[in-house]
Amino acid sequence: MARVQMSFDEMWEKIMACDRTYDGLFYTAVKTTKIYCRPSCRSRKPKKINVEFYDDMAKAETAGYRACKRCQPEVEFSPHVDLVRNVIAFLINHYKQKLVLQDIADHVDMSAFYLERVFKQETSETPRTYLEKIRVDKAAYLLKSTDRTNLDICYEVGFQSPSNFYKVFRRLKNCSPTEYRNLDN
C-alpha cells in the first residue's frame, strides 16, 4: 500500500478531530505512554510534542509501542479494508490531479462500478465525494497556513473550476473559503 503524504500538522488536525476517514492510513504513537492509536481514537489527546506518526502498525510496534485497548487499531472490521485504504491513499496522494472514477478503478485493478459500490458500502461515500473532502481539507489547511489567493488554492488542490470549488467548500465547511480563512483571526 502507498504511503500517505501528509504533513505532521495535517495528521495532528485529523487526530484532534477524531477523523475516522484516516483510520488505517496512519497511526498516532504517544511517547509518554508507549501506545499507538487510530486517528479516530476518542481517548484523551496527548500533548503535541509527545506524538509521533507511523504509516503502519508494524513500524509503531518495532519502535516499542503497543496497541491502544480502547480503539484497537490491530482489529480489522471488513474484508474490504485494504482495498478502501489503498483507494484512500491513492486519492490523498493524487488529489491535485484531474481524476475520474476509471483512473481510481485502474489503480486497484477492478471495474469502476464494483469499486464505487464497495467503496460506498464501506465508507458511506463515493470515491468522488471522498476526493472532494480531501481537496477541501487541503484547501482549508492552505487557507489557514498561507496567504495564497483562493483561486491559487482552488487549482493547487485539484479543483478544475472556481465555481465548483466554492460550491463544494461551502457544502462541506458551511462557509465560503474567505469566511473560513477569517474564522478565529
Automatic annotation (TrEMBL):
The HTH araC/xylS-type domain, residue ranges: 85-183
Cofactor: Zn(2+)
Pfam families associated with the record: Ada_Zn_binding, HTH_18
SMART domains attached to this UniProt entry: HTH_ARAC
Keywords assigned by UniProt, alphabetized: Activator, DNA-binding, Methyltransferase, Transcription, Transcription regulation, Transferase
Protein name, entry field: Bifunctional transcriptional activator/DNA repair enzyme AdaA
Organism: Cytobacillus mangrovibacter
